Amino acid sequence: MLAGIAYLPLTLFAPVEAIVPEVQAPQVATADAADIGLPSYGASAIAAVGFDGLLARTGSEKPLPMASITKIITALTVLSAKPIDDGSDGPKVTMTSEDAAIYRQYDARGASVAPVAAGEVYTERELLEIMLIDSAGNYAVSVSNWAFGSQDAFVKAAAAWLEENGLSSITVVEPTGLDPANTATADDLVALGELAHADPVISKIVATAKIDIHDVGEVVNSNKLLGMAGVDGIKTGTLNAFGANLLFSADLEVGSETVELVGVVLGAVDHDTLDSDVIDLLADAQAGFHEIPLVAAGDPVADYETVWGEEAQAVAADDAWIVVWGDTPVTVDAEVDDIRLTEAGTSVGTLEFTAGNRTVTVDLELSEAVEDPGPWWRLGHPEIIFGLG
Q1: Alpha-carbon distance 42 to 247, whole Å?
Q2: Is residue 59 classed as helix, strand or coil in its secondary structure?
Q3: DSSP secondary structure string, 148-166?
Q4: Which value, in Å, is the radius of gyration of the alpha carbons in the chain?
Q5: pLDDT of residue 7
Q6: 145 CB-near residues (< 8 Å, 6+ apart)
Q7: pTM, entire model
Q8: Core vs surface per residue 329-346: b (16+ CB within 10 A) or e
Q9: Is the dihedral of CA 165, 47, 182, 198 positive or negative?
Q10: What per-residue confidence (pLDDT) applies to 11?
């Protein structure tokens, strides 16, 4: 009698054994390889923000003249010393007779310039706009003198900024790019472009097609590709002895996602040739990205089966997809929990999809409730309840 009294509550209320899932993780097909046609001259490279490494590169691996792409380094170096707060245009700067003399000097050298007169007052943002949109070399000198006091001090500050940001191949000897000794590799210029693209002040300025500025008039962007094929920046450069350059950024729509590209082309014979080659390059890049479906909500990932005959599944809680470059493989890692008595919809694990350095995680939930087998089944199967069967 005592044994029966002990047997009944132990059998009726004992927890059931853990139910181990049988996992069948989904398989993801590999997409087609990408093929980007890069120009044969100079050097070129392209990357996608958030994706590993470069998508493609070609040409010289040695530093080449940057020309006016240098002004991006000038702007970033100035902003590191004189940051512009959100919602602000920065401090006001009064132009001097020295600035007027710089204008005359650079105009005589055939550089791209914008007019300036002593006594005119500009905000820091306006100085950067004139320098970057109109590519005015005299404003690059004036704003760097304002920020650092002299050209020697600016060159030292630019070198320190480049070192701090790991851009070891880039050399800056003056702020405009007029000197061909301002050089960089295509790889480091792409990294520079990513820094500029991420800077809220610079990215907005270089995406501006034209702007009216007091005492200067209409300032028109030297980048004629703005608004074409998703291009939203960054900086042109021209040296007659070397050729035409473009550091560019572009947004590509790939399925439901926007992919941000940064690239550079150096050494084209002219800007018409360069612009045509960049448009072709972007079309190849568009074709090289793929949005791959990973799993649909409700897709089964694992089966549960109890010894008393109930069945349930671990299913994906949501639809998921991933954008990949070319034939980047997608791997799947399924982590599925053991369960006991569990309600439908309970979280029971995750699926993690990985392509390169990108990951997508999907929650798993229980499709059906796993309920207690009931007293009659429990009383008849004590060996299973207690893990002895």
Answers
A1: 13
A2: strand
A3: HSSHHHHHHHHHHHHHHTT
A4: 31
A5: 46
A6: 98, 151, 154
A7: 0.91
A8: ebebebebbebeebeeee
A9: negative
A10: 52
Structure tokens at 168: 């070891």
CA distance 209 to 20: 61
Buried b (16+ CB within 10 A) or exposed e, 20-51: ebeeebbebeebeebebebbebbbbbbbbeeb
Mean pLDDT by 10 residues, the chain (389 residues): 49 74 95 95 98 96 98 98 93 98 97 97 98 98 98 98 98 98 98 98 97 96 97 97 98 96 98 98 97 98 94 98 97 97 97 97 98 79 56
Per-residue confidence (pLDDT) for residue 3, from 0 to 100? 47
Burial bucket for residue 11 (CB in 10 Å: 0-12, 13-18, 19+): middle
Domains and CATH numbers, the chain: 15-30+293-385 (2.60.410), 43-268 (3.40.710.10)
What's the start-to-end Cα distance of the chain, in Å? Answer: 25
